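Suppose a classmate hands you a notebook page containing two proteins, each written out with its sequence and a corresponding row of structure tokens. How would you begin to make sense of it? This section walks through that situation. The first entry is reproduced here exactly as it would appear on such a page.
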Amino acid sequence: MSRISQRDGVLTPAAFTQPTADQTLNCRILVVGGSTAAYTAALTALRMNVEVCLVQPQKLVGGQFTAQGLPASDDGDLLKQKASFSRVDGEQFAISRSQRWFRERQRQLQPVMGRVQNNPGGAWVCEMTTTPVVAATALNEPLIPYLESGKLRLVVESEPTEVLVTQMPEAGRSRVTGVKFQNLKTGEPFTVMASVTVEATDFGDLLELGNFPSRVGQEARTDTGEAILPEQAIPACQQSFTFNVMVEHTAPGQGKRLAAPLGYDKEPWLNSNDFTSVYWIYRGGRWSKRDFFDPFGIFRYRRVLRRKSHEKIVSIGDVAAINWGTSAHPYKGECCGNDFRRGHLIGISRQERKEIVQRARDRAQAYIYYLQTHGVKDLKTRGDFTWTPDGIALEPYIREARRGIAITTIRHEDVAEAFFPNQARARNFNDSLGIGQYHYLDLHGNLVEGHITPKGKDVIALPFSLPATALVPMTIDGLVLSAKSIGTTHITNAAYRMHPMEWAIGEASGFLAVFAAWTGESPRRIVEATPLLRKLQGFMARNGVPLFWFDDVAHDDPDFEAIQVMATTGIIRSENANNLHFRPYANVTRAVVATALVSLLGLEKVIPPQPSFSDVQPGQHWAYSNIETLKAQGMIAGVGRGRFSPDTPITRRQLSYLIKASVPDAFDQAFERLAPDNTPLSRRELSRAFYALLKHRLEI
């Protein structure tokens, strides 16, 4: 019988490791923080059979989904995509296999009227919502076997107080060797030593404690090179944060009023004029309103539990997460909910942070009180869904942290549509360890003056990727950046902070930490050495992690790994950058294969003034230099009569001749699952064969 179980999303006490005063724990990977990324980093490493210590401030794992009270995933449009003749379902290509499992498990745990539904909560702004208890239950399930075996030591109700480093003068860098912590209940100190440490706190605390190079708030143009920024940094310009509240729509007269916080309508952050119970919309020169319980009103905005099968019906007994930021109002201007904009949490003392957090919690309480006294009487809080007496989340929902200065900083110019005209993707980083998408840069600015507000195509975010070098600090070894502390900017964090992307960031940091533990190499060495990087990318793709945006190649595709890695390298990508299709069964021309081979082999291109083939002329055919380069190397021949026939589909047999001429030692690997016959070669077969060549060339 299992000695560890859970009830209502909370693990039994036997699950937790409780270090004694001044005790030192040793583990291969230390994950610090209670964020969503902390959870996925830890789970990823555990599934790779690596010992993990996870130290966090709450008993609940999962961050945004649980302790922060927002199990309403902010999904990009592509994740919502349904399968069609030419595309696969969004959950099969826009997120990892692991994240898809989590979503499926939540659906199973929260049926609606006895049936599994795609969106159990039926929110109108989110395609996937459940209660925090259901999210926590699903997240706990895969951890229990590792807790029982001792592979995972979960230390809760603790926070870091010091980062332990050793100096590496010869490298000009420092190396993290461990972290000192303090138990929040007893005050007792303890230490965890590890080969690799993952910074996955919601505030970037390890960066602050270690005094590591980092950035806070809105940077200056000279800091990041983002043209949209002002010349001076404004660190206090940070995203607002929110205490989410779980509320139930009760039968008439059954509502239970939440008390007003002290200072209601006296303190500026508790001003009732900031609030509204109505969602106002200005269109066509006139205002219209949606009442609180309207099918597209504030209540169903992030509804997490519904009683009826029809999503648009709001019923007695439905439960919602109140997470209402700023919206337009005909009389009050911009207001109107529980976002806290009067202050910031990063770059201030711990004591100041506690005071600001308490103000934000009071504001959430004030908003519910306002609703219940301004026409929404049939409402009560659901503390059983937040593990608190009043239905207010244990922790605030955090949108921005201290960010490490990484080897690569992901900038506005890497993400926004304005910089990629007529393209379907943002910048394709060739060291990608994941992908993400949110349709715009969702900046919830606080009230500090000077916020940059991107507009038009400057605010639209194209599907983006996660460079491995954004997870590695520029001057610190032994530390992997995760959660919201990776190498983004104030602007790009607004897209990378969303639930699906934070999950992906956690997975990427977990895989990187595992490779460092397995190989004994530093994270820096892994992301900068091409053979190690490609090996890591292949391993991640093999485990169902997408690295490049293709909407027609699913996790379970037999060539998923080859297609993903070859696209990430830039050797074989889309036929047309205007869409996300790979077209795995489409034919491949002789010119395309020649170009891909030159890129794979890293050959120095030649451009002779006189062409070798009459149908491939300089200045007229885009593949001229690639074809001539292979001709100069003696690797290709024409089709007769001085012609190359560049735009004719290549056959498997012709590819076999090309590989025998260029990389004969890798022929058997390239054609292991490919018959050298006269069948036209498909794009998936090209990826499969060339991936074998790539692994042979890099000796991986």
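The notebook's second entry, a different protein, reads as follows.
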Amino acid sequence: MERLSPVMIANRGEVAVRVARTAHALGLRTAGVVTNADAGALHAEIADVVVEISSYLDAEELIRAARRAGARSLHPGYGFLSENAAFARAVTDAGITWIGPPPEAIELMGDKARAKAAAEAAGVPVIPAGEDGRYPVIVKAVAGGGGKGMRVVRAAEELPGATAAAQREALTAFGDDRVVVERYLERPRHIEVQILADRRGAVVHLGERECSLQRRHQKVVEEAPSPAVDAGLRARMGEAAVALARACGYESAGTVEFIATGDASEFFFLEMNTRLQVEHPVTELVYGVDLVEQQLRIAAGEAIALGEQPRAPHGHAVEARLYAEDPAGGFLPAAGTVRVYREPCLEGVRVDSGIRAGSAVGTAYDPMLAKVIAHGPDRATALRRLDRALASFDVVGLTTNAAFTRALLRREEVRAGRQDTGLLERVLAETVADPPPDLLAAAALAAAGTAWPPGPWFRRLAGHGEVRVHAGRVTAGGRDWAAGAVRRGEDGATRVSLDGIQRRYAVAVDEEAIFIARDGHHLELRTASAARAGDSGLVNGLEAPMPGTVLLVQVADGDPVREGDVVVVLESMKMELSIAAPHDGVVDGVAVAPGDRVALGQPLLVVQAEPEAGP
């Protein structure tokens, strides 16, 4: 094991922190990397030594960094270059131990067409090709993953446009625009099997994870075991996953993903992820195995010490991904500074995170802030513990999906384990997570109780009029409240009394704004002057609804457009957003070009409305 030390962790955020902690527990030293955008990040401070780089995607630079740090092994984490066969090969060629599968296995499983053929040859059920003219079908990037480069097509006339969009997204994300077309299963489950393989030919599986709760093909909630899988089906899925791993000469940790019918009576190979998965903690808690430790031991040449017989799951674990995003604003990415950060300290709850108070959250990387994982003797207990953990997790300074996720987990379909990959999208509109009515009043009262310079009048960024504190009362949201005491608790939280009821809030205040959160809900208030300073003077203008990068500009000055025509396409935090003309008119003042970085509210262009025809 010592021959791996120091271990270079070629990644950032929570996975870099996660890998470092296990390496340190094994007595290994670590080396980290950090870019200017991550200056002061937690993952950089937890590593023993850190090398500054310009990009987490520059393979040559990462290898130079490993050499400078004296690293004898390299763990890629997930995302970035973790499934890049050329990078794995270059690391090995540099005399550094690659903590992952052989480059040949990465290459084979990274090509969806070849991976499907390999699975079929190994006797694993595969999805029929969508070439018989029947719809719906799905267009998928050959080198894809994580929902990138995927489009569902329900009619022949949609296929060309969907194919072009998938190819463009795939080229941007993976540098490869090849796609395949397959039959699309309606309301399927997404179930995956965790495998481990050592260098001595041993391959074992650690059961399955249910990952069906997804939005835009990105997983939101994962659990182990799947509520739809019994012992017999678990054995069959596990055998299929092990057979594929053996067929491709696999080593290290990996995941074989299946798509299954709603009752899970049929399952088909989807893809193999040749790396650690984001959702690996649920397997660790249910099976009592540290998967990163196993990766390190396998890379050191040790045998898997888990026994030859498949392990049985113990209890149930559920993971929720905490994202910096605004569910009420169409899940647009949120950016800002984390002003208050307090993790829940509860029985059966684990938090994997790479942020802390003071962390800057921008748009350069994935919007995931943390993972909250709850474990219990049964599924109902795990779900209750997760709900409580999300409610008591204090993240102040930017909007998160915590309250929305709590509402989702309380839905009857989810409680009963009847989820499928399309459920979340179908119930978005009815999964309401309205902020509690006291939040606005508590913010005003907490602000009035501080030395906040502007005084008692405030204006909420999202509207809802003004708020006033006066004569022992708070007027907020069209309601009057009796104003009570405001005090700071020993845990750092703020207790505010309204109408004789004291509640716990997380509060932060600066020169122009107050930020407040409760039970996963987040609110930002600014002074009236600060809000006015941010008002736009454009009448017909289009502004960036989120910070990000301009992918496409479809129009030029003088072009006529119709209401709904797409004029600009933005990308931020792995999400593509089309900006449409708000009305018929003529384009004027195009202010951006492809590749430009834009800030929230930055002007993009103007659509001058056509004058109404005279009588």
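A careful reader of the second entry would note: The chain has five domains: 2-99, 129-183, 189-427, 438-533, 541-609.
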